[in-house]
Amino acid sequence: MNPLEAYNSALTRRQFFRKSGTGLGMAAMASLVGEKGFAAAQPMGNMSIPQFAPKAKRAIYISPIGAPSQLDTFDYKPELEKRFKEDLKDYLAKEGERLTGMTSKQAAFPLAPSRFKFSQHGKSGTWISEALPWHGKMADDICVIKSMHTDAINHEPANQLVCTGSMVNGKASMGSWLSYGLGSMNQDLPSFVVLHATHSSPYSNVQAISSRLWGSGYLPGKYAGVDLRSKGDPVLFLEDSAGVPREMRRSMLDGLSKLNMKSYEAVGDPEIVTRMQQYEMAYRMQSSVPELTDLSGEQEHTYAMYGEDSKTRGTFANSAIMARRLLERGVRFVQIFHRGWDQHGNLPRDLASQCKDIDQGCYGLIQDLKQRGMLEDTLVVFGGEFGRTVYSQGKLTETNYGRDHHPRCFSIWMAGGGIKGGQVYGETDEMSYNITENPVHIRDLHATILHSLGIDHERLNFKFQGLDQRLTGVEPAKVITDLFA
Questions:
Q1: Which helix (H) or strand (E) holds 416?
Q2: Contact 186, 238 (CB under 8 A)
Q3: Pick from 346, 361, 351: which is nearest to 315 by CA?
Q4: How far is CA 32 from CA 36, 164, 451, in A?
Q5: Distance separating alpha carbons of residues 429 and 70, to the nearest angstrom
Q6: Is residue 41 predicted with pLDDT exceeding 50?
Q7: Does residue 24 lie in a domain region?
Q8: Can you spell out the DSSP letters for 105-132?
Q9: pLDDT of residue 138
Q10: DSSP letter assigned to residue 280
Q11: How many domains does the structure of the chain reveal?
Q12: What are the residues facing 410 on neighbouring strands?
């Protein structure tokens, strides 16, 4: 026999107790007592957390993929009207601006003031663009952060940084971290669900996104986001095959579980246990998902609050209602992706269309959560991957312009989950170019989100490749405590 194989197959005393205590024994116990009983017998989640009193139990992250222009939504710069078409070439050189390949060859960089009018809203007097009239109605419910900044200047790495805390592939997503740390509140649905909302503009640039943004990376596969489709069956193979009764499906799964247990006993691969758990989740979802996606019981006044698009499957407003229904059923984290926000040209036309898609849906979601008493323990975040330039990409006219990528500053908003509404945090200079007050990096946002859910971002770790991995990485990150009421 090969000496190396003999060594590897030998079972030491330490290996025996480890496998019995945390491996096969735990899996066997789960199969004996049932998943609900097994979950109830443990501290919540995997890290004995929440580590302190949480302000939120669950969260929704709305991702406008492509990066909305802060200059045309929340960062009001009225003085720029006087500087229309001013060439910023010398200014950019002085600032050492990183330019993308889309504008680096431009002969001039004409300053482009926003074509949208702004007005103050709510008791807070928050300045909001006319492109977002329904946001104006909820100005006192949201906190606008104008001083976000990031390390990335292109979409894919920037979106990975927002969703996983790193521009490097293979990292665990934010929703996966929350699922891993906090566990599930419902055994019939995943703890992390992803929705893809359609957009209505036929002209917008639509950025491709990949499952890396909701993947589990080095965490066990069961913590990956589950993608509910907006067309066809919400989940593939939701119904049993023709001629396969429910009892036979149950018997097949039981037999498969026994085979998988033997494989696990032989090799000890934890992904085998994950596979078994996911088979069981899929079986339960065959009953829970049809009930979840049946919106026939929703009241007409609810549809009116979200807008006329809310009855059309796949729209943003419909996805927002679905997100609320998921939270009601115990889902921890819902991420809604809405693509088409990459306005390198024709911004006034295309941005207005994108804003119309999400504006009333966001308003309806916040008001719906408030009415149901859920907003106080539900964190809602709306934010893209970076900002847009003050100068025009391509030709600038009185009515039309485009904007390139700008990582130095951009705006997002947060609501619920202990966040103090009706405030504006951070400030930028006169051209929305640099941050002048209270900078917030993506890592700080992640730390703040985890804090809202009762997690110390420095203590939520997972050992991988010899390192204690975490969402906020190894660089400094701080909780923005001023955001909380």
A1: strand 410-416
A2: no
A3: 361
A4: 11, 36, 36
A5: 13
A6: no
A7: no
A8: T-S--BB---SS-EEEETTTTEEEETT-
A9: 98
A10: H
A11: 1
A12: 148
CA distances from 226 to 161, 179, 215, 405 (A): 20, 12, 9, 30
Residue 21 lies in a domain: no
Instruction: Please report whether residue 298 resides in a domain.
Output: yes
- 113 preceded by cis ω (within 30°)? no
Distance in angstroms (rounded) separating the CA atoms of residues 69 and 341 = 8
Distance CA 127, CA 132 (A): 11
Cα–Cα distance, 353 to 101 (Å, whole number): 27
- Could you tell me which residues come within 8 angstroms of residue 447 by beta carbon, excluding any fewer than 6 positions away? 457, 472, 477, 478, 479, 480
Q: Quick one: how far is CA 426 from the chain centroid?
A: 22
Q: What is the 3-state secondary structure (H, E, C) of 1-15?
A: CCHHHHHHHCCCHHH
In this prediction the pTM is 0.86
DSSP 58-90: EEEEEEEET---GGGTT---GGGGGGTT-B-HH
Pull the structure tokens for residue 259.
Answer: 């085979």
Nearest-angstrom CA–CA distance, 39 and 26: 11
CA atoms within 13 A on the CB side of 327: 27
Going by C-beta distance under 8 Å and a sequence separation of 6 or more, which residues neighbour residue 37?
Answer: none
Name beta bridge partners: 211.
none
In degrees to the nearest 10, what's the CA dihedral of 106, 108, 111, 116? -50
Find where tokens 């002209």 sit: 203
- Please give the mean pLDDT across all residues of the chain: 88
Alpha-carbon span 472 to 316, nearest angstrom: 29
Mean pLDDT of 94-99: 85
Q: Say how far apart CA 273 and CA 145 lie, in whole Å.
A: 42
Residue 5 covered by a domain:
no
User: For residue range 412-459, what is the model confidence (pLDDT) as tens digits?
Assistant: 999 999 999 999 999 999 999 999 999 999 999 999 999 999 999 999
> What's the CATH number where 86 sits?
3.40.720
Of 304, 357, 307, which is closest to residue 64 (Cα–Cα)? 357
Q: Which domain holds residue 304?
A: 43-483
